[in-house]
Amino acid sequence: MPAKPDPILIEVPETIETERLLLAAPRPGIGPAMAVAIAESLGALSPWMPWAQQAPSFEDSEAVARRLCADFIARRDLTYQIYDRAAEGRRLLGGTGLHRLDWEVRRFEIGYWIRSSAQGHGFVSEAVMALTRMAFEQLQARRVEIRMDDVNLRSRAVAERCGFELEGILRRDSLTPAGELRNTCVYARLGL
């Protein structure tokens, strides 16, 4: 049986460009921009994201950014920040990434969030499509999933626009950030 490759040796692009966006791996120094984007968007994020229950300090966000950077290098989690290429200084719009990595099966889960002032412009769908392409073409993904609370209609619409198929709903499988039982939709696309 051939030896399994060490994930840390797998080549993963640190940037992905689309027509309007730059997806960039986390790096030290982005904490303040992350804190501002999260604080702006707490109302939209807090029902879904456990990490968005209060406005983070610049220091807290910088610590998170550095942990995300370390996880990217170690191939434990592949987070990208979403930047608007046209905006002066490439404004931080949100985040996306491949999570719950299974390098042996080549199964990945996409997550995403967008700051409130950038909603409704198709940025999340554009980022998800670029990340999906990269997962299948460069990482030889066999399966890419998107999971969300079944009542998160905006997130479900992104998955459907990006060609992911609803495979099922896991009933009462987890808790919302408020501690209530929730159902989780599982969308997927399959590779060769």
TrEMBL record:
Q: What is this protein called?
A: GNAT family N-acetyltransferase
Q: Could you tell me the superkingdom of the organism this chain comes from?
A: Bacteria
Source organism of the structure: Roseateles oligotrophus
Q: Which PROSITE patterns match?
A: GNAT (PS51186)
Under InterPro entries, the record lists: Acyl_CoA_acyltransferase (IPR016181), GNAT_dom (IPR000182), Ribosomal_N-acetyltransferase (IPR051908)
Task: Enumerate the Pfam families for this protein.
Answer: Acetyltransf_3
Note the PANTHER family from the entry: ACETYLTRANSFERASE (PTHR43441:SF3), RIBOSOMAL-PROTEIN-SERINE ACETYLTRANSFERASE (PTHR43441)
Boundaries of each N-acetyltransferase domain copy?
A: 34-186
